[in-house]
Amino acid sequence: MYDLMISLLAPADPYEIDQWVEEQVERLREAGKPHDLLLGRLVRARPHQGGHWLIKVDRRARAGPPEKDVVLAAIVIDLERLGLRPALFASTGRARALAEPRRSSHTPARVTARCGPRARRSPPI
Q1: pLDDT, greater one: 113 or 44
Q2: Would you call 57 helix, strand, or coil by DSSP?
Q3: What are the percentages of helix, strand and coil residues in the chain, rounded to 5?
Q4: Taking Cα atoms as reference points, which of 96, 100, 93, 85 lies closest to residue 6?
Q5: Distance between CA atoms of residues 6 and 113, nearest Å
Q6: How does DSSP classify residue 12?
Q7: Which residue, among 19, 20, 40, has the nearest Cα to 29 in the 3D structure?
Q8: Cα–Cα distance measured from residue 115 to residue 125, given in angstroms and rounded to the nearest whole number
Q9: How far apart are alpha carbons 75 and 71 in whole angstroms?
Q10: Buried b (16+ CB within 10 A) or exposed e, 96-125
Q11: Which of 88, 74, 83, 80 is nearest to 31 (CA)?
Q12: pTM as predicted
């Protein structure tokens, strides 16, 4: 089950550098295997997906949130150094599990009345 995706954007015409990008992603794929971070196939993105290629990322065997995953961070940094402008996305099925839970002790205050000099000039909420 892939729970993350990396979107890549080419610095030049993506059709001219397809093979080079595939070679670089394969190198990073091999680097992530010993650490149980699996990069899926490099696929062409659709225009509404925001990049030229997409790579699905499987972190099932890794513990902790993705923002604290050092191996994942190293792969994203390598993609950035290659000039591919990576963007990391969580899949919609896992978004709630990855989000920090809301604290019940910090409920937002509700403003019911305005006080002070601005109260006369602005309408009540």
Answers
A1: 44
A2: strand
A3: 35, 20, 45
A4: 85
A5: 47
A6: S
A7: 40
A8: 12
A9: 6
A10: eeeeeeeeeeeeeeeeeeeeeeeeeeeeee
A11: 74
A12: 0.63
DSSP count for the chain of H helices, then E strands: 3, 4
Total residues belonging to the chain: 125
Provide the 3-class DSSP secondary structure of residue 39: strand
**The pLDDT value given to residue 98:** 39
Would you list the DSSP string of 65-122?
A: -GGG-HHHHHHHHHHHHTT---EEEE-TTTHHHHSPPPPGGGPPPPP----SGGGTTS
Residues 11-36: pLDDT tens digits?
878 778 888 999 999 999 999 888 88
Locus of tokens 């009540």: 124
Token code pair at residue 75: 């792969």
